[in-house]
Design a protein that fits this description.
Layout lengths: L3 H6 L2 H13 L3 E4 L5 E3 L8 H6 L3 H21 L3 E4 L5 E9 L2 E11 L6 H10 L7 H8 L7 H55 L9 H12 L3 H9 L1
Helix pairs in contact: 2-7, 5-6, 8-9
Length: 238
C-alpha cells in the first residue's frame, strides 16, 4: 500500500511544489491527515497573518484542525476543496488518496478574494480575539494579505488536483514495480538456496559404485542364453 512517506521520499513532490509556486505565484505544501505539515518547499513562508496566528499554540491547533477537515472533505467529494480557514483566509486542498485511503492533502492558499475592507478586518479580529494577540497587530498583518481573483483560485485548485492525482498514480505504479522486483529477487534467492542444498546433499553421499562389472554382465548373458532362469534372476537381484 502506498503511504504518504512513499510519496514524499523520492523528492519528486518537492520539485512539483516548487514548480507550482513558480508557475502560479502561490505556495503549496503537503499536510498529513491530521493537518500537520508533512512537506513544505524551502520557498514556503506563511503569510504575515498566518505567521502571527501560529505564534499561539491554540492558533496552531486550529490551523491543523482546519486543514484536516478540508482534507477529509476533499477526499469525500473527490476533487479540490476551497474553504475559509479559522482565521478567515481562503485556502484550498487537493486530496492524496491511494486504495481508497486518505494519505494527506496538498494545501495552498492563505489569500483573500476581495479587498480587505473594514468589515473583513473586524471579522478576522473577531475570529482571533481569544488567541492573546493584540487586535492592532492582527489588522496590520491582514492588510498585507495577497488578493487573488476567484478565477485564478479556481485554476490553481484544478492544477493542484491534477498534480495530486498524477503524483499518487505515479507512486502507486512505482510501488508495484518495486514489489515485482522484490518478488523476482526473492524467487531467485530461493532457487539459488535450493540449488546449494541439493549440491550439499549430493556431495555428502558416499560414492555410488558400479552396479555390475563386465564379468557379471557376461555371466548374466550366459545364464539367460542357456535358460538358467533361477541363476539369472539371482544375478539381476544382485
Amino acid at each position: 500500500m502506498t503511504s504518504l512517506h512513499d510519496i514524499i521520499a523520492d523528492g519528486a513532490l518537492s520539485q512539483v511544489l516548487r514548480s507550482f509556486k513558480e508557475a502560479t505565484g502561490i505556495a503549496a505544501r503537503v499536510v498529513s491527515p491530521d493537518g500537520d505539515c508533512a512537506l513544505a518547499p524551502t520557498a514556503w513562508e506563511d503569510c504575515p497573518l498566518c505567521a502571527l496566528v501560529r505564534t499561539s499554540g491554540e492558533g496552531r491547533r486550529r490551523c491543523a484542525e482546519s486543514y484536516a477537515r478540508a482534507a477529509r472533505q476533499a477526499s469525500s467529494i473527490g476533487e479540490p476543496y476551497t474553504f475559509q480557514c479559522h482565521a478567515g483566509l481562503i485556502c484550498w486542498a487537493a486530496p492524496l488518496v491511494a486504495g481508497g485511503e486518505l494519505l494527506g492533502s496538498i494545501l495552498c492558499g492563505q489569500v483573500i478574494m476581495w479587498d480587505p475592507d473594514d468589515f473583513f478586518m473586524d471579522e478576522v479580529a473577531q475570529r482571533t480575539r481569544d488567541l492573546g494577540i493584540r487586535r492592532s497587530r492582527i489588522k496590520s498583518a491582514a492588510t498585507r494579505l495577497e488578493l487573488v481573483p476567484p478565477r485564478r483560485v479556481q485554476s490553481a485548485a484544478e492544477l493542484l488536483s491534477a498534480m495530486a492525482t498524477y503524483i499518487v498514480q505515479s507512486e502507486d505504479l512505482a510501488l508495484k514495480q518495486r514489489n515485482e522486483i522484490y518478488r523476482q529477487q526473492r524467487l531467485l534467492g530461493e532457487a539459488i538456496q535450493e540449488r546449494k542444498q541439493l549440491e550439499q546433499q549430493l556431495f555428502a553421499r558416499p560414492p555410488v559404485r558400479s552396479m555390475y562389472s563386465p564379468r557379471q554382465e557376461r555371466e548374466l548373458m550366459g545364464a539367460v542364453r542357456s535358460g538358467r532362469r533361477a541363476e539369472a534372476k539371482r544375478m539381476l537381484n544382485e
